[in-house]
Amino acid sequence: MGSGRLAMSGSEPVIRPFRDGDEVAINEGFNRVFGLDRPLSEWRWKFPAVPEGRWIMLAEDVGGRLLAHYGASPMQLQAGDLVVRAGQPVDVYSTPEARRTKVFTHCYRAFIEAFGNRDDLPLMYGFPGGVHYEMGLTQLAYEPMGPVGYWRRAVGRGRRVWLPRYRVVRGFDPEAADELWARARARYPAAGIRDGSWLGRRFTGRPGVEYVFLTARHKTRAAASAVVRIVGERLLWADLVWDGEDPRALVELDYAVDAVGLRSGCTEAELWLRGDDEAAAGLTRLGWSARPHPENLRMVARAFHPDLDLRDIARRVYVTMGDSDLV
Ligand SMILES: CC(C)(COP(=O)(O)OP(=O)(O)OC[C@H]1O[C@@H](n2cnc3c(N)ncnc32)[C@H](O)[C@@H]1OP(=O)(O)O)[C@@H](O)C(=O)NCCC(=O)NCCS
């Protein structure tokens, strides 16, 4: 371990990868640091052992008490011809006793040393704001990738086309999602892979949280899909996949999203959308407007693969709120 203010009560912390059973202390630490009461079942949903594996480094004192945690949530990402596993740091923290001692920084560096390579996690990305954004760039060697692409609209403004060609159906259908992604994926030159497997992992089975799946279909063909979450009076449009063939599919989908918001008593709808100019133009016509993110969240990334060009990814990357763990 390198130099720095590491010594805690005269003894060096141990930094090591996750072992089965650590989840109890990690989740307790998470609840303490973030002032939450997250059940262990939600940790299990968020850090499944399969299919992408668990990517977690932790620091503990000699007595085995957890001091810092750096974990990443993995997904497959396509960038040009490459498909790689990308990790998003989530639930990262140091405990109050370990704060500003550099234990966290050392835990992060051990994480990168162990997993930041072309086979494990060739790409790391996240959406920090404020001091964490600055820390990411200055201390943790992340690169700036630009804003998240934040959009808003008052609920109740959705417009419907006369004689709709598309029927919007509700419910998660992994086969339809696979089929839509297969036709749509070429529109997203740099994007997390939104197939049925990922959508199922990301938006089903989360304890205590309901997501609404909507798919605009023409006959049996899925043309666009949305995932929505209601939080109080806010409608969060968590994900969008569109095959790009007919803007009317987007109009109908947007109308259905709006109807969910109206029925749930929402006043405002929010969306992250970046890297799809056609969808952005369509949604602008439907009354959505791009704004600065209220907490100035921005994307950052770090690459560990010679063929991943972060500048190119920053120019083209597709981002929705569902890429983050904030919805
Ligand atoms: C963010 C967090 C993990 C940083 O942990 P830490 O124990 O301070 O980390 P380190 O000791 O390794 O600090 C590394 C450097 O980060 C920077 N830094 C950390 N916290 C900072 C703060 N509040 N303001 C400004 N800079 C800060 C400093 O440059 C610091 O180095 P310094 O102490 O020599 O100035 C910790 O504050 C934390 O757990 N916060 C609550 C949970 C959280 O917000 N997690 C991040 C979610 S995105």
Bound molecules: coenzyme A
Query: What is the CATH class designation of the largest domain?
Result: Alpha Beta
Major beta sheet summary: 8 strands, mixed
Radius of gyration: 21 Å
Q: Can I get a quick summary?
A:
The protein is of the alpha+beta class. It has helices at about 25-35, 40-45, 105-115, 130-140, 175-185, 195-205, 245-265, 275-285, 310-315; strands spanning about 15, 55-60, 65-80, 80-95, 125, 145, 150-155, 165-170, 190, 210-220, 220-230, 235-240, 270, 290, 300-305.
Keyword list:
327 residues, alpha+beta, Aminopeptidase, 2 domains, eight-stranded mixed sheet, seven-stranded mixed sheet, 9 helices, 28% helix, binds coenzyme A
Question: Could you explain how this protein is built, in words?
Answer:
The chain has 327 residues and is an alpha+beta fold. The protein folds into two domains: 14-148 and 299-306, Aminopeptidase (3-Layer(aba) Sandwich), CATH 3.40.630.30; 150-292, Aminopeptidase (3-Layer(aba) Sandwich). 28% of the residues lie in helices and 30% in strands. It contains nine helices and 15 strands. It has helices at residues 23-34, 40-46, 103-115, 130-138, 174-184, 196-203, 247-263, 277-285, 310-316, and strands at residues 14-17, 55-60, 66-79, 82-94, 123-126, 143-147, 150-154, 167-170, 190-192, 212-218, 221-231, 234-242, 268-272, 289-291, 298-303. The strands form two sheets. Strands 1, 2, 3, 4, 5, 6, 9 and 15 form an eight-stranded mixed β-sheet that branches. The chain has a seven-stranded mixed β-sheet with strand order 8-10-11-12-13-7-14, sandwiched between helices. A hairpin with a 2-residue loop joins strand 11 and strand 12. Helix 5 packs across helix 6 (196-203). The longest helix has 17 residues, at 247-263. The protein binds coenzyme A (COA). Coenzyme A binds next to strand 4, helix 3 and helix 4.
